[in-house]
Amino acid sequence: LDRFCFGLEPQTQGRFTSTASAVKAQTENTTAKAAKESKTFQAIQEERREQAERSVLISCPSKINENKFLDYLSKHGTINNHFFYNSYGAYAVVEFSSRESIASLKESTNIPAVEHEAAVPFKSRLLSLKWPGSQSSNHPMPKFKVQSPPSISEISQLLSEKNSIDEQLQCLTETLELTEENVSLRFLVCSLLRDIAGAYFPECIIRPFGSTVNSFGKLGCDVDMILDLDGIYATSQKKGSGLSLEYQVKRGASERAVTQSILSVIGKCVDQFGPGCVGVQNILQARCPLVRFSHQPSGFQCDLTANNRVAMKSSELLFLYGQLDPRVRHLVFSVRCWARVHSITSSIPGAWITNFSLTVMVVFFLQQRGPPILPTLDRLKELAGPSDKCVIEGNDCTIVSDLSKITLQQNTDTLEKLLQEFFEFYGNFPFNKASINIRKGKEQTKPETTALYIQNPFETTLNISKNVNATQLERFVALCRESAWLLQQKENLNQSSDSPWGFAALLVPSVSSGAGVKNRRKRKLEPASSRIKNLLDSLKIKGGETVAKKGSA
Ligand code: CTP
Ligand code: MG
């Protein structure tokens, strides 16, 4: 081995973005597995966090000899798991069975010598492996795990090969969902960041929240992180030693001011010392102050927040809803994908509907089925045990953590039916006067005149879609109506045709989004006036049915 002169160096530079490929390895998702074994959300997160602390990220040559690589690293301890991926260069995530191996590995690293420059001697767990000279190539190449989603045309092709809309929606989830490896990498990036923030707050934890953990994350989505200092507050409250931090401890005018000052310092530190962290922006004036940056070696866009416990709780809530019935995730993935393709959602902040809002809208819709597919948030609170009690800044965020306590009603609707009815439901929803409330599972009178009012599940005086303007809401409604209509057209249910059918037909650029319609056979045949008349007729009928169904539910 020594003839390869392995040398591990802390990496000071990385490369950005990840490669796209249609092929996604079939991996068992441990989140789903853990949920089946009825582990709580917190237990799953803790397990992942602990694994990440025993892991390293290594940049390595792409023609690496996997066996030799593993043999070499095994000198530092037993390896539990590892995988390779490409992100403008090959990387390996290696999970050891013990944290001591990390210390041993770090011990053996050297700081790279850079000409005309000097390196900051920060020993992180982002390393690079040097292979001077070429090595023999008659060894198998390692498998590289894909970290980005396939393109829409690849997805459309894949869906067209399925036999039913239900199969299409299941396939869509399997194609887009975060893989086991991708989730590990996300936790590892949080853990690497924690090492930096730990310079100031040794007891801090950086936890992922949002779509990384709520079970609705799509490959390529951002990593939302929380700098969690609660442990420090909790332990310092327990000790009654007579010593306190009071004397000349720094204070801020408000919690928000303290959060801003902590994040600005951590942001600076990430910028100056964080290997692979580039494009650091402090966005401290936002309602929820944050530090945004790109982590090049993973290709992730990261948003670091602090003092944001309610958001973690809403991630837990969505996770819980996602675990209750497989149809929830299939419907959410489909609606999110549909919305993204038609630019209803966007990666740029603005007056658009967000994925978070869309997910809550799907939950609300599923609470309205007859019988309901999902329980109300009030019901989840009633089922909570004493240890589930959770009050954050005066907001009661209590929800049951033991999924087995929740009994569901028998509802056998197919995904096809649910998708169709979702579009009809929101195509006809009285947005002008009603708000969406998943706590009650019922429409409520809108407390303000914003275009779209979706009550924040835990901070009940807030509207999660306050940013949405009337134009964006109208686009959403128009697209729902059009999609409801398209799903009723026989030609779109014809699997033997060459054009996209079923759900794939809904991903073709639409009239409502202002894009071309040339791929639609029906559109080519009929004049615009007749299309619009058909659409209106179909809505009149369907609108009546929807109201009737809701009344009887
Ligand atoms: N959040 C919130 N209120 C909002 C927006 C966001 O409480 N008005 C919380 C939610 O818990 C959400 C998380 O912040 O899940 C992250 O927000 P965002 O990144 O916008 O949504 P994701 O669910 O992560 O979806 P995406 O895949 O678009 O990142
Ligand atoms: Mg997010």
How would you explain this protein's 3D organization?
By secondary structure, the protein is α+β, with helices and mostly antiparallel strands. Helices cover 39% and strands 12% of the residues. The protein contains 17 helices and 14 strands. It has helices at 30-36, 41-53, 66-74, 99-107, 152-160, 165-176, 180-197, 230-238, 255-273, 309-324, 326-341, 355-367, 377-382, 415-427, 470-488, 521-525, 528-552, and strands spanning 7-10, 55-60, 79-86, 90-96, 126-130, 205-209, 223-228, 277-283, 290-295, 300-306, 391-392, 395-396, 434-435, 444-445. The strands form 4 sheets. The protein has a 5-stranded mixed beta sheet, with helices on both faces. α5 (152-160) packs antiparallel against α6 (165-176) and α14 (415-427) packs across α17 (528-552). The longest helix has 25 residues, at 528-552. The protein is globular. The N and C termini lie far apart (70 Å). Magnesium ion binds next to loops.
